[in-house]
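Hey team,

Filing this mostly as a record. A colleague (T.K.) asked me to run one chain through the structure pipeline before their review meeting, and I want the input and output archived in the tracker in case anyone asks later how it was produced. No errors, nothing strange. Just documentation.

Input sequence:
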Amino acid sequence: MIEAWIGSSWGLPNSCFNGLKLLVVGESTHAAEYPVGSSPTNLLTDTVRDFVENNRNWRFYRILTTFLAGHTASRNVSDEVRHNVWKSIAFRNFVPVVAANYARQPVPAELFLKGGDAHRKFLERYQPEAVLVCGFNTWGWFNLQLNPMAPKPWEVERMTNIDNLPCACIKHPSAGFSYLRWKPALDFLSDAQHD
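Output structure:
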């Protein structure tokens, strides 16, 4: 299984989220150098580290970082802020294996199905205090696997509690993302810390 990124300040009082153990869930990993369905253990952690240290313009990560930092333009995100955001969160993809060789290739349903068990195990082991899900498709699979009583998993309210765990969904940050439109989701999760 591809290992999750766990920031060095995740859950600590000096984190960007004042100690909140925020888990961010993306959809999937793509990599041309690995076969679909494979699970190179360090692929995600190496990718995040490379973004933070060297490739700050990678679209998904840049937009997500800007959003999590509370900014509305990536040019306002300094190197220090980018580092601090990624130190402060845990990040994993719902699909726990390489889902495609290139971006924008559809992810087969059977790979999403693998995600439910892996995700439950992650929640049990690390016990995040809030979950931010990136993308409506991922939100549906997330609910299908973790909230099986939901009659229509893709239509579950986008800011809700699942088994007392505050969860929110935002549009996938890769295209047409509005920072202001999705800010209430981040506020909802941040407020969970005070309840």
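Quick notes for T.K.: The chain has six helices and eight strands. The radius of gyration is 16 Å.
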